[in-house]
Amino acid sequence: MGSQVSKQLERRKAIDAEKKILADLFESSGDQFPGSDYHPSDHKTWMAGLDPSKVRVRDILFPGTHDSATDKIGIRFVSRPFAQCQSCSIYRQLCRGARVLDVRVQEDRRVCHGILLTYSIDLVLDSVKRFLSETTSEILILEIRTEFGHDDPPNFDSHLSDSLGDLLIHQDDHVFDKTIAELLPRRVICIWKPRKSPAPKPGGPLWSAGYLKDNWIDTDLPNTKFESNMKHLSEQAPVSSRKYFYRVENTVTPQADNPVLCVRPVTDRIHPYSRLFISQAFARGFADRLQVFSTDFITEDFVDACAAVTRARIEGKC
Hints:
By secondary structure, this protein is of the alpha/beta class. It has one domain: TIM Barrel (Alpha-Beta Barrel), CATH 3.20.20. Helix content is 33%, strand content 14%. Helix 2 packs parallel to helix 3. It starts with a helix and ends with a helix. InterPro entries: PI-PLC_domain, PLC-like_Pdiesterase_TIM-brl, PLipase_C_PInositol-sp_X_dom. This is Phosphatidylinositol-specific phospholipase C X domain-containing protein. One of its GO terms (molecular function) is phosphoric diester hydrolase activity.
C-alpha cells in the first residue's frame, strides 16, 4: 500500500512539473503568431469568410476534434466521464468551426470508444449533411476508422459512398493544390480506415488511411506530449510539398496507473496551450508543416487560432 501511495505522489510531482514547464514557456514566450489577432465573424462559415476562390486546400490549418462522436458515449455520470472527449454534438462542433472529424465504429455501425457505445454512424452522416445544407463553401475531412479490437462493418465503404453521394471529394492528389471554389459543390474528404477490409482504391470516392497521418503518443504528461508533437511535426515535409494530411492532437490521455481517469481534468493540462503550440511552431521554424490541429472539447478560440493561420497564409504573412 505504501509503495503504491509513493508511486502516485511521484506521478503527481511529474505532472505538476510538466504543467509548470508549459506555464513558464507561455510566460516567457507568449502565444502570438502572424495574424493571431484575427477572429472570424461567423464560426459556422469561417472558410467562406476567407474567400473560397483564394483558399487552397494546402493553405488551410484545419481545426479538428478528437474522438468527435463521444458527446453521448456510455452512461451519463457513470462511464461517460471516462470516454467523453467532446461535450457537444457533431452538428454543434461543425457550427463552432470544426472541420476535421475523428469517428470510430464497430461491427454494427455504431460509434464507439473502446468498449463504450453510442449512436449509429448514420446520425454522424446526417449531421454532416445538415450542416453542409446550411452552408455553401465549407469543406471538411471526415475520418472514420474501425475501433481497435473490433471488426469492420460489412459493406461499409458502399454505405459511406451512398450516404454522402455527390458531397464526396474523390481521391485525387491534385486536390491539395486546388481552391475551395474549384472543389465545389463537393465538400467532404472522407477517409475510411478499415482494419481488415480492403482499403479504398485510388481515384474513388473514399480516401485511404495514408492520406491522414499522425504520431500518437499515449501519455498524460502535458509537456511530454507538447514536445513529442513538436518533434514529429518538425520531421514532416512542408504542407506545400505534401500529398497527405498530417495531424497534431493537442490532447493528453488518462492513464490506468493514475487516479485521475476522467478525460476533461486530464486534457485540461494541455488544453489551454493550443495557441502556444502554434506560436512555438512559428518560433522554431515548423509552422509551414501545420495542417490539421485537433483537440478535445473544442472551443471557438481554438478555431480562431486555426483560421488565423489560414488567413495569414493566404495574405502572405507566413
